[in-house]
Amino acid permease
Amino acid sequence: MLSFLDALKRILVGRPFRTERLKQAPLRKRLALPIFSASALSSIAYAPDEVMLTLALAGSAAMSFSPSVGLAIMVVLLVIIASYRQSVKAYPSGGGDYQIASVNLGPRAGTTVAAALLVDFVLTVAVSISSASHYVIAAFPALAGHQAWVATAGVVILTVLNLRGSGRSKLGAAAPVYLFIGVVLVMLALGGLYAATGTLGTSPSAGFTVVPDPDYPHGLTGLAGVLLVLRAFSTGSAALTGVEVPISNVHILAAPKARNAAKVLALLGLFAAILTLGTMYLARAVKVNVVEDPTQDLMFNGGPIPADYIQNPVLGQLAEAIFGGASLGFYLVLALTVAVLLMAAHTSFNSFPNLASHLATDGYLPRQLRTRGDRLGFSNGILSLSIAAIVLIWLFNADVPTLIQLYVVGVFVSFTLSQLGMIKHWGRELAQTPDKRVRARIHRSRMLNIAGFLMTAAVLVIVLGTRLIHGAWLAVLGIAVLFILMDALHRHYVDVDGELAIDERDSATALPARVHALVLVSSVRKPVLRALSFARASRPSKIDAIVVDADSEQTEATLAKWAELGIPVPITVLASPYREISAPLIEHIRSIKRDSPRDLVVVYIPEYVVGRWWEQLVHNQTAMRIKNRLHYEPGVVVASVPWRLASSDSSMSLGSLNSTPISNPKDKP
Amino acid sequence: MLSFLDALKRILVGRPFRTERLKQAPLRKRLALPIFSASALSSIAYAPDEVMLTLALAGSAAMSFSPSVGLAIMVVLLVIIASYRQSVKAYPSGGGDYQIASVNLGPRAGTTVAAALLVDFVLTVAVSISSASHYVIAAFPALAGHQAWVATAGVVILTVLNLRGSGRSKLGAAAPVYLFIGVVLVMLALGGLYAATGTLGTSPSAGFTVVPDPDYPHGLTGLAGVLLVLRAFSTGSAALTGVEVPISNVHILAAPKARNAAKVLALLGLFAAILTLGTMYLARAVKVNVVEDPTQDLMFNGGPIPADYIQNPVLGQLAEAIFGGASLGFYLVLALTVAVLLMAAHTSFNSFPNLASHLATDGYLPRQLRTRGDRLGFSNGILSLSIAAIVLIWLFNADVPTLIQLYVVGVFVSFTLSQLGMIKHWGRELAQTPDKRVRARIHRSRMLNIAGFLMTAAVLVIVLGTRLIHGAWLAVLGIAVLFILMDALHRHYVDVDGELAIDERDSATALPARVHALVLVSSVRKPVLRALSFARASRPSKIDAIVVDADSEQTEATLAKWAELGIPVPITVLASPYREISAPLIEHIRSIKRDSPRDLVVVYIPEYVVGRWWEQLVHNQTAMRIKNRLHYEPGVVVASVPWRLASSDSSMSLGSLNSTPISNPKDKP
């Protein structure tokens, strides 16, 4: 059984890597840019859609408002990037927002940021892969309706790749992102050219009209209109995730790390702004209509739309309008979008286990998340992320508009606390800096972070205010639950550490007075003889064989056999009026401890090692119970003396069977 | 957690009984009769129904054939009883059919009988309690439709009573059976009187007409008619179960055991015949109509029957016709029928665990079924029976006509093999007996058993032939699976016994050459110090502390602390390029064993004892894996040195916390 699972693991994951392989060359800027940008850039695959379909609730006319919403989001992006360029110079170690919040605002703020980021990393995978699955469906319409399966397949592939430690090829990771930027830029330029010359086509959905939601009968007017625009802004701010990637990965950059990270951040902001705004303006120009539910919310010539209409994402419709429906350009855009979305998810497959490992080292998560697996990845973290993402995908049927409601909350909690931490950081710096020119620079930096804090806090309030009832409550709940678990676990580890720390009263050289060995005998067979000889070999001060008399017939047989074999160990029969094994044994041990409290009692238990799973059910049950029970007795050591049954040989190829060390009777001491 | 489950068990089951309580006074004949008859007599609660509703497939006229079918069944009953009276005299020890088949036909026949009986004991509970639930519903029509819940409640109550060891009151068990016999006899006598005076009423279902099944358009004619009569006979033979009870319980009877058992058998046959035949004749006289599905198979004045009609069992309808619908007599019959059905199931709750315990002692079932629980019942057997019966009840929704299709197969397999065994037994006796008069008696006995064998074999063929496709295949499958499991387990136990038996090459006094102690160190904390001092107390020939270098930072911290504390034990660092713990440790142990093959290696592993379930998830995972892995290494003893965390105190009230025996440093050796 073991060996089958082992073999499966070897096939999927490959042979283990040696620890030395961890050392890697630092990452050059021109490779870092695409790799660190994938997450932020990938959001143009779904963020424009979200803005437009939220506005579409107020009808076709309202959708023309989308480029303005996009512009607002980009302003926020640029402010965040400017303030992050400050942070990265102050904290160039790669600890990211978690470190900034912990150091400046205390460990509870750090835990909050960590919980928020963990939740959002899971959502990055769920949203990116769900979105990618819709692009796959745009290319292969036969898969329509099976998006959850497609997305699950994507997560599983990424999981296996990450467990294998593949996807570390820098060039392989950078190329698709550069290609994606290139192709989208070409598309936008062509689109601009066509628009200028008046030859721009229309999107497949241009002929439809949008049916406004009954809640918005007069378009974007009144308070309801303002709230809808805020909601569009809030969902569109999904475009802001991934900005934290460079700051969390400074440490793997080539020197000068902080300056390179700042440059990468600036370029990332530039590309994100151009691509997002370009896409949103052109989408309006080719009259893209996207809605939540096409069959209900779209009309064609006053009647229902064709039954076989599949609503493709905005980027896909744009490519169709500019390159043509079955053209190379169209498929190239789809394929590269899927690649960049996978890269975004892949970024989370690095960030989540990395953060989890940091947290485990600090005692906020179980230690299992700390250790590297066979291929040097944090396997347990990778698996946890993968399982959580798949659960989310199935919970929401890979539906991006629903998943996006949960998204961004975590990132903005983290942004906001990190900016607050930076403000405190500059305040402390100011107090220690007498030089006026340096003080002026610090003042400027602090102003930038204050601006960043105000903006991210405002976005957080907007996000929570407009989306809490639409699903964001689940993200908040997730963050809260994670926080509570991490906090409880940390306190547990701290308690245990205190309890186990060696203090001056502990002596490293003290020994128990004497050792009293007890050998548990059920019937006189080979395993008992072995347990006896092992117990005697440890030369205890006193040794006793113990029979618990739960079945008088069996006890008498045991005693008879004992006498017949002339075993040179006294045997004690413990009465058991209630046919129990543990209770009389423990009573006996306590009476020994009462008589000589400083003695150590070692209980030798013969145990079978079986090969087939069902054999475990018919053997060792009593031994197991006794062992568990004895664990709670102070001053008792339980020594298992294993006896391998013949069947155990088949399941373990290693080692010879029962090659007992007592083969030669001449060795008697 | 432990203590909560313990408390629940105490409330349900009560305080344990001492083993001495097992000794009981022998059972007098006048108490044995009702107790041993309950199972056989209870079948008049459902057997007449089954005969009539099978015949009803051929229409109303066919139902008048039912008393004749009942007569045929009673003839079989009397032959079985006559031959059983032979068996009980030859095998008066209470081993029953299992013993007779094993001794005379070999262990495989015995195993077959045992498997068949176990299956039928489960079915006795399922059928009796399901039938009882319909009588409860006849008294409380509001429960209609919830028969499976009522039946489950019945099984649970019986289970708890049997686990408590209650229901051993002889008088309490005997009284309801006597009362039942009395009330039914009174009812039959009254019915006969009314019939003679022409004042006999009619049953609630007398006004309905039966719609014949389309398969039987001309009533009981042709081959189809013959087969239907055989099927009615076959389902009605459920009345024959329970006849084996006296022979399986001879040993608890008062002396002379065999003669008393024979008398009980004769009286049991007499009562069963009178009650069954009386019920079936009177049921025709009051024109009872019972069918499988009343709404489909019954008509009233050519139209559908009233929608709220609930079909009560035959005995209930008879009581209603003779005593009146809401009379004391009616409710008395219902209540006593339920009591006798419960008694029948209760009989199985004795027989099943008893047989299972015999089988476990002989190595055909897991040893857990052999031991008596707190209240001296075979608790594991009781629970197994209970679970199996509840599964059957829910599988068939407590529907007696469906369950009965599975029933009787096992009993007749057992009857037939036991009769065959008796024939062989008499043959052997004849060969050893020269005395002519004794030989004549043996010849007579053998003739009786031959007649019994032919009859039971014929019934078995009829049962299988008419019911195999209706559900009996499931019983056959159950018997076959049980047989295979028991046979495999027996062979396993025999193999292990052979493997573990002590032979002349084993020496009871040989000892390993030297003991090499290894103490596994992860970090230098109190549990490690304790493991070290315990290991040193056992005065090994050689002792080593072992650090596996899976994490170089941690290893260095450990070594530094080791030096700082001045621990007087050498520490060995094992390299672990693949960050594993077990593999380097096992490699190290093997190299020790290579150098000195006759050494015993004892690995001391510090282990935490935790109190809360989730703590088990964050501690000991590595220790567990290492222990499991070391079990497969020959010549290695694993000694767990437990350290109780503070939290473990709350879950176990016993014992003081970590009262370590190394408190006094003056005890240094």
Chain B has 26 helices and seven strands. Chain B touches chain A through 99 residues (CB under 8 Å). Residues 26-89+126-302+309-403 of chain B form one domain.
